[in-house]
Design goal:
With about 130 residues, the chain is α+β, with helices and mostly antiparallel strands. The protein has 1 helix and 5 strands, in the order E-H-E-E-E-E. One of its GO terms (molecular function) is long-chain fatty acyl-CoA hydrolase activity.
């Protein structure tokens, strides 16, 4: 990967020492939570209201995340149904003080739009 990526990340974060597993890499659960946060932001914007994660259709760990990596989480709407939407997520690590970018994980998360009673509502229906 190059530093010329025209996309803007939804989230940028650096993992801390408490996020390391026994192998010296970042916990997969930590990465998953960052992906869910970023995807939730994109889904809520698209639904113009509250959303909830209902499924992770696919997730793949491609390369480990290291302690000094700066993580960029990219997310975009891939498809929209009546009450749900699929959000594609890609996580890229800036490594070696930004000299290298490495795609570390990707996934496809499904969200459902919620009404005031936390029940599914149409994505394109205005949230009250």
């Amino acid at each position: 990967m190059t530093n010329n990526d025209p996309r803007q990340p939804v989230l940028r974060v650096t993992p801390g020492p408490g996020d390391i597993n026994s192998n010296g890499h970042i916990f997969g659960g930590w990465v998953l939570s960052q992906m869910d946060i970023a995807a939730g932001i994109v889904a809520a914007r698209r639904a113009n209201g509250a959303v909830a994660t209902v499924a992770i259709e696919r997730m793949e760990f491609i390369a480990p995340i290291e302690l000094r990596d700066l993580i960029s989480v990219y997310a975009e709407v891939e498809r929209v149904g009546r009450t749900s939407m699929a959000i594609r997520i890609e996580v890229v690590a800036d490594r070696d003080r930004g000299d290298r970018q490495i795609k570390v994980t990707e996934g496809l998360f499904t969200f459902v739009a919620l009404d005031e009673q936390h029940r599914p509502r149409a994505v394109d229906q205005p949230a009250a």
